[in-house]
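Batch manifest, entry 17 of 40.
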Amino acid sequence: MKHDDEHQHERGGHVEDKHQSSTGAKAYLRFAAMILTGMVIMYGAMYAGSWEWGDVRWSESRLFMALTMGGAMALVMLAWMLRMYKNPKGNIAVIAVSVLLLGVASSSTARRPRSMTLIS
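Output type: structure tokens
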């Protein structure tokens, strides 16, 4: 008995899921675009507490915070959507870039003079 589900269709004699796992480069580029968009929005959101336009200026520490949050967000999103992204090399690349982003932010804190850190 053959049943027709809205999430399935027949192709080549076998049934496939329309929401099939994303293993192609296009899916991972879309994932990267989501993370990058989130980091840009997070960087901008850090200025939400500014009272005047004059206070809105380039901030290296805000950039490093946005990179840190982007790295953490990528790890969390990949963990939640792992069933969608089944390419092991792609997943390892996402994890490596995420850890790199987290490391950039922590190394920038380590390079600062002791007088510039919040906790002395």
